[in-house]
Amino acid sequence: MTDVAQHYEQLLAEYYSWMFGPFDEKVAEQRALFERWGVVASGTGTALDLGSGSGFQSIALVDLGFRVMAIDLSQRLLMELVERKGERAIVPIQGDIRDVVRLVDTPVDLVVCMGDTLPHLESRDEVLQLLRAIHHLLVPGGRCVLSFRDLSVEQRGLDRFIPVRSDASTILTCFLEYEPAQVVVHDLLYVREGEQWTLRKSSYRKLRLSSSWLVAQLQAIGFMVEVQESQRGMSFLGVRKHNDAKSIETSDD
C-alpha cells in the first residue's frame, strides 16, 4: 500500500492527462461547467486551484479571466501544467493542499478543488480543516467549487471492477475494496512494449464522502450552497461565503 503522493509519482502522474482523453476537450468541458454555473472573474480576479493536476481547471479559469494559483503535490504534473499553459497567468505551487494557509497569503475570489482531490485526504477531520481554510482565504461573497466521486454506497461483486481508459498500447482498470471509512483503490496498468504487455500496479486509499455530509459541513462552516448536481458518477458542489462572514480559525486549538 502506498500513500497518495507515492501512488501518483510511481504510477498515475505519467498517465494522468491520458486518462481523461484529449486535453483541450477536457479544458473546454471544465470551462463550459464554470460558465453554466456563472463562475466569472470579479473583484481581484484571483482563483486558487487545489490539487490542480496538469491544469484542466486552471487553464479553463484563466480563459474566463482569472489569474490562478495552482497547487499540487506532484512535480511531474506541475511541469506538464507549465508546458501546457503557455503565457497564461498561472502560478504553479508545489505543496500539500493541507498547508494552503501557509502557501497562500492573499485573499482570493474563487477556490476550486476538483477531480477527486478531497477523497485523497486521510480523514474527515482533514477535509473539515481544508474547508475551514478555504473559507478563511475567500473574500466575503467568494465562491468555492468542489467535485468528488461519492463512494459512500458500496459496490459489490463485479461492479467493483472499473475500466478507466484503454487504447492500442495502454489499458488502465481499477478494483475497489471497501472499508468502513475508506476505499482501497487498486490501479492495474497494462502497457504494451512491442509484442509484450507489462503490468504495473499500485494501490491507495480514498475517503468515502457523501454529498449530504459535505453539504452539512459546508453550511455549518458558513457557506451557502448554490449548486449541487451529479454527472457520470462525480458529485459537484458550488458554494458561496456569506458576504458578512469573517475569517475563521483554521485549527481546532
| SSE ordering | HHHEHEHEHEHEEEEEHEE
CATH superfamily placement of the largest domain:
Vaccinia Virus protein VP39
Overall mean pLDDT stands at 94
Strand content: 35-45%
In the CATH scheme, the class of the largest domain would be Alpha Beta
The overall strand count is 11
Give the C-alpha Rg. Answer: 18 Å
Net shape: globular
- Strand arrangement, largest sheet? 3-2-1-4-5-11-10
SS-based class:
alpha/beta
Structural descriptors:
253 residues; N-terminal domain of TfIIb; single chain; Rossmann fold; 2 domains; disordered C terminus; alpha/beta; globular
Short précis:
By secondary structure, the protein is α/β, with parallel strands linked by helices.
Task: Kindly describe this structure.
The protein has 253 residues and is an alpha/beta fold. The chain has 2 domains: 4-150 and 208-241, Rossmann fold; 157-207, N-terminal domain of TfIIb (Single Sheet). It is built from 8 helices and 11 strands. The chain has helices at residues 4-12, 16-19, 23-36, 56-63, 75-85, 100-103, 124-137, 211-221, and strands at residues 46-50, 67-72, 90-94, 108-113, 138-149, 161-166, 170-178, 182-193, 196-207, 223-231, 234-241. The strands form 2 sheets. Strands 3-2-1-4-5-11-10 form a 7-stranded mixed beta sheet, with helices on both faces. It has a 4-stranded antiparallel beta sheet with strand order 6-7-8-9, covered by helices on one side. Helix 3 (23-36) crosses helix 4. InterPro entries: Methyltransf_25, SAM-dependent_MTases_sf. GO terms for molecular function: methyltransferase activity.
